Amino acid sequence: MSSIIPAPIARQPWGMLIPLLVLTGFGGLVLFSAAGGSLQPFALSHWIRFGVFLVMASVLAMFPRDLARFAAYPVYGIILLLLLAVEVMGTLGGGSQRWLELGFMRLQPSELMKPAIVLVLAHFYASLPTGMINGWRALLPACGLVAAPMALVLMQPDLGTSLAIAFGAGVVMFLAGLPLKWFIGGGAVAAAAIPLAYFFGLKPYQQQRVTTFLDPESDPLGTGYHITQSKIAIGSGGLFGKGFNEGSQSHLNYLPEPHTDFVFATMAEEWGLMGGIFVLAAFGAILGWGLKVARNAEDRFDRLLAAGMTATIFFYVSINLLMVMGLAPVVGIPLPFMSHGGSSMMTNMICIGSLLMVHRWNRKKRGSGLSD
Amino acid sequence: MRLRKRARPREVVTQSTLENAFDRRTFVIGTAMGGLGVLLAARMGYIAIAENEKYELESESNRVNLSLIPPRRGWILDRNGAPLASNEADFRVDLIPERLTDPERQVDVLGDLLGLDEIRKVDLLDEIAKGTSYQPIEVASGLEFEQFAAVSLRLPDLPGVIPQRGFSRYYPTGASVGHLIGYVGIANAEEYEQERNPLLITPGYKIGKDGLEKEFEQVIRGEPGARRVEVTASGRIVRDLETRPDVQGNPLRTTIDGPLQDYAARRIGLESGSVVVMDCETGDLLCMASMPSFDPNSFSAGIGSLEYSMLRENDRVPLRNKVLKGLYPPGSTVKPMHSLAFLKAGVDPNETISCSGGRRIGNRFFNCWSNHGSVDMAKSIYQSCDSYYYHFAQKIGFDKVAQMARDFGLGQEYDLPVASQFYGTVPDPAWKLKKYERKWEPFDTVNSSIGQGYYLTSPLQLAVMSTRLATGNMVMPRMLMSSKTPTFKSEGFSAEDMAYVRQAMSDVVNGPGTAGRARLPLDDVKMAGKTGTAQVVSLSVSDGRSGPWKYRDHGLFVFFAPFDKPKYAGAVVIEHGGGSGAAYPIARDVMTFLFDPAKGMDALRGYEKQWGGTAQQRLERNYAAYTQAAGETVRPIPERNENITDRVDAEARAAAAQQEAIAEEVRASRPAEGRSGSPPPSPAAGVP
Question: If you count DSSP H runs as helices and E runs as strands, how many of each does chain A have, helices first?
């Protein structure tokens, strides 16, 4: 069998790549329908972007571990500076802004920060002497590394992204072996802080999103509209959906943002529960593979990096799906590989690239240990 | 996990403990991820399977928009089946204020497309500002197809504007049936609150606002059709799904004789007044004309502020249905009926009294309008001698007379499908005591005995009285056609008594009476009648014949024909006509038209040449002149929340109250030569 399929192809992690390719292809089909049955303007650019970022991920996968570890702090520093630049330009320009105009593209540094925080924390804990993991020196520098970008992103204001950064960082810290009681204590503090944050930390529109989430029917034509219409789209799809290009909720504009945040609802209306289970299964395969890569890694840095990247993708998927099904407030987080949008595609493909990189390191080590 | 930790509290952290922790914790995270995945799948299954029906329904109600198609109203027919109100196919444009983005610009664009003048544009903006936002406002109807198409083309540019094909109400005889039929209009907020029917706020739907259109709204409304369309979230129609046609409302067959109604209305001419004609056998109301009137066609199309203010400013109150809501002292028209009261009380018709230009009642002398010498009952009727009535009313007591008046339909309301009718006053001692807490005086008897004082009647009541005089039966008026002939109770007079009074009434016209000019120009039909002149202000203010219109006497005439075998009966009341001479020529022509339409029309054409056209033509010309005079000064539109004709009710009552002001006066009949009621030198000479 190994003689029929060339080795470079056979050694690719097809268990992840096939679900990813099919999911992205399926995402393009849904976008095709969301555009009213047309490749333009969503589906075609979705596929092209995926192709471009897949090449980027392959290149990323070639990087040696030393380079990755060497780059951790500089990359983190540069992105932090970019965040600061966005903030400064926003202040000078007299309005909040989330991106930098680079001419050929709009760069959203907060997106880059999601994999970067995982990278820098993995590097930090890998470098930390083993015995210090129970001490304050394991916690405080890490907290500083997380707090700075979170604060900058919150100021934009972008609650969803800052939570994504916190989640990625939290998972790395949890897996790095910090004492469990810290997490329990931190959780308690967070629970106490939520009401305070709600009343003093959130902007009125964010507060409204939370109240609407708790009672969508309170404002069926205002902010509750999104959730209500999304549930109608998913619910009316039934088991097998209304059929490709037959979704009335998306085609008649009842569903808000049918091609970005609510792309899952668009899909569910036309493909039904079967489509939804397929999407969940595809994500399960990708994320499961990611965790397997992390567990197979032997180096501490590799493990933390892979697990953190997996967690970052997971955060996107879970929050988006909870939102469209009415289980979480509307926070504006797209669904990886299905939603139309360059920034999130880039972030998620960086995560995939990083996982491929760790996967390659694992294979190389095992390969050298066994066959050489 | 916590237990294990506690079991080894002071453990030295090594590479392998960290690796163990990593493995445990990734397992926890993996489990959490899987758990969330299962939760999401379950949640989706719940929404998509368990709640599928509910959400499918909501999705359908999103997608499909049901819009009502206004039903065609049932026709309103006259007794012969000719339409008094019908429907015309119509291209129309409405707008919904809350959907407009820029009312001023949009009204301007519509104005250009539809050729609206400045007045109409100002009216429209006013309505948009004042109206409730969900209530459609009519921009224009009766459009040419080209105009309709032009608006349809510009629709993307004009949100809130709704062009549609529909039907509009059409009243072939226009102003002639204005008060009788009423008109239709867009339902106002109050009406919608009352009925809460989505049809009422469907663009293009109009409900009956007055008259028969209002009373029989539910009968002639019909069933709305429905159109199911697929719409986008912003309301744009994607495609038609299915259409259910409307069901036209039932026709309403009235007892009105359409041509007679039109003739009578036109014959009133420049005067202000009403004509009522009834069928003696059935009580069918053949004609209920009240003029001047409004054109229900232009009311139904949404009357402009100028046209409305023209009607409102007119001192002849074109907005009041005088047949039902005009109250006038009946004057001498009650004399035949009062004579019947005397007969019933045992007065011998041949008994005479002497009129010496008046008569002493109690210790005062009351004038008659002329010196009649020796007067019996017949002469008192055809010569309209007041003294006779002073005497016998005093003799038998006015209570008996008042009871007779009520038996003959005065002071009564009838079971008719009309929004309101005024029942007027038949005064008697008990009534006066209750209302004014004053005793009934002899002069009250004197005034009331000749239909003055507190006496107030509507033209409809007078017509009923006349019908009952003609038949001797308690005929009840009716407005809806029915195949069965009703039977009426007798008034209880012998044929002989009735014949006596009828003969006297015939002599009013055909004998030595007060209305010789009312004789029908027909060989075989003779009309009987009784003149009446009602004073409206005291003698010191006006002589009743000249001077300001408002102070002139009302002219009245009750009649029936043929006098020996009555078929038709009725009443004519001309407000401030200066005496009965204004009323009976109209009765003569109306009855002529009934028996010989060609002859009647000839007479009318002659008059209309003098007057300057038909009532409709004059109304239109007046409006043109009024518009020109008003120029650019545009008055505010009437408050459409109340019905336009409601407004004049108060004034109608006020007008009735004015009559009471002189009721207390001791009635001194004016020594009147040339008055309509005066005995002509010879019966044929008539009155100037």
Answer: 14, 2
